[in-house]
């Protein structure tokens, strides 16, 4: 499962900017007002940048106001492609929203599982929250698919942590509500009431998530709650070395 960013390269220098074509952007009045990575600018090695971003996030992920939120919608077209192409052995029949979020983001939106704690995500358990409104067939299809996807990604390598070492996966239930989808495409709704939540920490990531922390835009990963939170980090070497620029999410949508 993959996230998207737009790349623009100049000889010897890399610039990555947030967004998509203007015709596809939404100027949503109800967008949550956080700060997201708008762009970065540096001369150097992408692998080193990804590693530095991961190590920085690992160090600050528990700090107040630091959050992670990235979403994707997997509709029937892509599910059919996965099935016909043999990408996965187990593919759900119904489309679904997939939210990769930090424990801090779950706290921010007031979501708690009904049948357990999210604390095990910090210990390397790959933890998913499923709506308690799903019927047995849909829930089972999602569990089998998410397990296959996570184990496939873990076997790909590229990162060593609790999950890639132990391959432990857990599922809990939550009561659906209204959740912002963080997508800029006009064809997708601004809210969904029953996504799959992956509770994401650096101890249960695969290399896909760890390497995607550099994604830009409102539909990128890293979010700061407010300007004060951003201010605590903007003078750090990571921000200066890679020219990281964060902006209000409502401004990035414009």
Q: Secondary-structure element sequence? A: EEEHEHEHEHHEEEEHEHHEH
**Helix/strand/pairing category:** alpha+beta
Mean pLDDT: 88
Report the sheet-strand fraction. 15-25%
What overall geometry do the principal axes of the alpha carbons give? globular
Give the strand tally: 12
Low-confidence stretches: 2-27
Helix content: 25-40%
Rg calc? 18 Å
> What is the total domain count?
1
Q: Helix tally?
A: 9
Amino-to-carboxy terminus distance: 27 Å
- Please summarize the sheet with the most strands: 10 strands, mixed
Can you tell me about this structure?
The chain is α+β, with helices and mostly antiparallel strands and 254 residues long. It has one domain (6-253). It is 31% helix and 24% strand. It is built from 9 helices and 12 strands. The strands form 2 sheets. Strands 1, 2, 3, 4, 5, 6, 7, 10, 11 and 12 form a 10-stranded mixed beta sheet that branches. Strands 8-9 form a two-stranded antiparallel ribbon. The longest helix is centred in the middle third of the chain and has 21 residues, at 136-156.
Give the helices and strands, then pairings.
Elements: E1 6-10, E2 13-17, E3 35-42, H1 46-60, E4 66-74, H2 76-84, E5 96-101, H3 103-109, E6 126-131, H4 136-156, H5 162-166, E7 169-174, E8 179-180, E9 191-192, E10 196-199, H6 207-212, E11 222-224, H7 227-231, H8 237-241, E12 245-248, H9 249-253
Parallel strand pairs: 5-10, 6-7
Antiparallel strand pairs: 1-2, 2-3, 3-11, 3-12, 4-5, 4-11, 6-10, 8-9
Key descriptive features of the protein:
10-stranded mixed β-sheet, 31% helix, 9 helices, disordered N terminus, 12 strands, 254 residues, two-stranded antiparallel ribbon, alpha+beta
